[in-house]
């Protein structure tokens, strides 16, 4: 919803004159000049071999440079297959990367790089939605120019296959492997564009943030980036299970592919799926979505020894098995509202939804006992529910909606951001936390959703729909904090818009910055402390 707000800005600003060129291997890339902003764009550059036919459901094969002598890099490439876009805007041949840089920089400029991974529940999203031109322009204006990079990764059952067959064939977490391949491409090639491969900051939101956080666990992230910014997503924001848990979703997908329906329960559907065409695959996408009982059926999964997620993050944290990279991590005030059904109206219904979300994790008896405690910690009192700080107002819904939204937001987002910040701080890893509380326009975000998941994105990208002085100010300040961190590993470089000091999160100073144009200030990271402490006390129950 909010992501689409960035499209008109992107389209309006891509007005070019003389096209810039760059030599990548044997290929001449012809990009697009954005004269009004003094920038150059190079898009639709393949970073991996097309994941087609026999390469479908396989890890990406890095493509250091294109095969052709010339490449039209003036526009974005097509999005990866998903159910929410017209077919003409998508292709299975979608593993492309885009580079946006200040115009006129020297080949040896060695500018820091901000590498964006989009969100969308692991089954939707595209690089074309996100225009980094304001971020780049502000970085230049403040004297710390950066290069902005984003990319496409595989989605849905093509990016996150589920089930035993996918496990047997090494086909798990392919979208995460696409992200790693794109980062490897940056290491190989960003110097050609004037970037510094030793100064890459990976940032993303929602699924993109979860993916980035997961790479801290058991990947070569430390050799591919030096820092990260995590917007509304930690390692276990999406509850982590083994791939067999979502076997029914995989079977529904296969059953929806007309030529492969007979193989749905056979445990040997891959051979048939390799031969299916795009129309058939999209039919399978839609069939699985229509029948799933999971909020997000296509998600990262525990992939065992040697995998990217060898165990629950909480287990790996205890072992000290995570990259020691500095990071910013934050959440929005009302993360849970968008993921809570507005029709929920009873304690029994919340209980049933929570059981479905977390099963199977522990014994049914222990799970029921834990959920009972959780419900006691989140009473049916609208003054305590989400959207927070709205008193008794229930926005025409049952009070149980605010209760359920508070639980959803804390189980998936607040508790996990806090758990990760504590873990890193105790290991002496520099990190900074935030809570985004900027009020949203009712025409953009319905009041029942509050300061919802995703609502910070236009502010980071310098494109808030709210043009009030408060909104414009917090947008400029957030962009400055982000760029400052990417260029100096601290949000407090003293350049750009005057802004409060953002103190580091430490065991002695557990505080986050409140990002609100009317009141930017450090606040204790203790809101709903008893509730998140309980959630984090037994992470196995919550699949954290």
Overview of the molecule:
GO terms for molecular function: carboxylic ester hydrolase activity. Residues 1-17 form the signal peptide. The chain has helices at residues 7-13, 133-141, 156-159, 164-168, 174-189, 207-218, 247-256, 270-275, 278-291, 313-319, 347-358, 364-377, 399-426, 457-460, 469-488, 529-537, and strands at residues 21-24, 27-30, 32-34, 39-46, 70-72, 96-102, 111-117, 147-151, 195-205, 227-231, 327-332, 431-436, 511-515, 521-524. It is an alpha/beta fold. The strands form two sheets. Strands 3-4-6-8-7-9-10-11-12-13-14 form an eleven-stranded mixed sheet, sandwiched between helices. The longest helix is centred in the last third of the chain and has 28 residues, at 399-426. Mean pLDDT is 96; it is low at 1-16.
Model regions low in confidence, pLDDT < 50 over at least 5 residues: 1-16
String of helices and strands: HEEEEEEEHEHHHEHEHHHHEHHHEHHEEH
| General form | globular
Helix coverage percent: 25-40%
Biggest sheet: strand arrangement: 3-4-6-8-7-9-10-11-12-13-14
How far is it from the N-terminal to the C-terminal residue, by CA? 28 Å
Protein name: Carboxylic ester hydrolase
Keywords: Hydrolase, Signal
Pfam families: COesterase (PF00135)
GO molecular function, one term: carboxylic ester hydrolase activity
């Amino acid at each position: 919803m909010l992501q689409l707000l960035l499209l008109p800005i992107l389209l309006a600003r891509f007005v070019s004159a003389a096209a810039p060129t760059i030599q990548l291997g044997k290929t001449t890339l012809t990009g697009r000049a954005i004269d009004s902003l003094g920038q150059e764009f190079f898009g639709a550059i393949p970073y991996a071999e097309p994941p087609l036919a026999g390469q479908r459901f396989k890890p990406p094969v890095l493509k250091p440079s294109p095969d052709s002598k010339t490449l039209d890099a003036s526009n974005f490439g097509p999005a990866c297959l998903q159910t929410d876009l017209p077919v003409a805007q998508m292709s299975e041949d979608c593993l492309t990367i885009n580079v946006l840089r200040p115009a006129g920089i020297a080949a040896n400029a060695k500018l820091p790089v901000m590498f964006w991974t989009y969100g969308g529940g692991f089954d939707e999203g595209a690089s074309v939605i996100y225009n980094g031109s304001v971020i780049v322009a502000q970085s230049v204006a403040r004297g710390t120019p950066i290069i902005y990079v984003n990319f496409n990764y595989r989605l849905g059952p093509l990016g996150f296959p589920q089930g035993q067959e996918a496990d047997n064939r090494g086909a798990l977490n392919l979208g995460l492997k696409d992200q790693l391949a794109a980062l490897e491409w940056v290491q190989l090639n960003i110097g050609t564009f004037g970037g510094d491969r030793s100064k890459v900051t990976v940032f993303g939101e929602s699924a993109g943030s979860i993916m980035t956080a997961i790479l801290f666990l058991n990947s070569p992230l430390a050799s591919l980036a030096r820092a990260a910014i995590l917007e509304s997503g930690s390692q276990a924001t999406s509850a982590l299970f083994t791939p067999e848990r979502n076997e029914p979703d995989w079977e529904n997908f296969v059953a929806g592919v007309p030529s492969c329906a007979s193989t749905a329960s056979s445990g040997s559907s891959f051979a048939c799926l390799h031969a299916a065409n795009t129309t058939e695959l999209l039919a399978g996408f839609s069939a699985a979505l229509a029948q799933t009982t999971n909020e997000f059926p296509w998600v990262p999964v525990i992939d065992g020894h040697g995998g990217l997620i060898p165990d629950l993050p909480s287990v790996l944290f205890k072992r000290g098995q995570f990259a020691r990279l500095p990071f910013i991590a934050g959440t929005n005030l009302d993360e849970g509202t968008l993921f809570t059904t507005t029709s929920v109206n009873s304690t029994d219904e919340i209980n049933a939804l929570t059981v479905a979300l977390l099963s199977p994790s522990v014994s049914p008896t222990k799970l029921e006992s834990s959920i009972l405690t959780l419900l006691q910690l989140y009473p049916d009192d609208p003054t305590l529910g989400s959207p927070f700080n709205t008193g008794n107002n229930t926005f025409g819904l049952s009070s149980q909606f605010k209760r359920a939204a508070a639980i959803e937001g804390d189980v998936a987002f607040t508790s996990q951001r806090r758990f990760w910040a504590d873990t890193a701080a105790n290991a002496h890893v520099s990190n900074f936390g935030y809570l985004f509380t900027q009020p949203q326009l009712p025409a953009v975000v319905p009041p029942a959703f509050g300061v919802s998941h995703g609502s910070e994105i236009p502010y980071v990208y310098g494109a808030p729909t709210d043009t009030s002085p408060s909104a414009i100010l917090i947008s400029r300040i957030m962009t400055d904090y982000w760029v400052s961190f990417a260029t100096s590993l601290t949000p407090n470089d003293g350049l750009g818009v005057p802004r409060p000091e953002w103190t580091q999160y430490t065991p002695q100073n557990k505080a986050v910055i409140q990002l609100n144009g009317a009141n930017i200030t450090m606040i204790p990271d203790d809101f709903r402390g008893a509730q998140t402490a309980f959630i984090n006390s037994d992470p196995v129950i919550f699949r954290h």
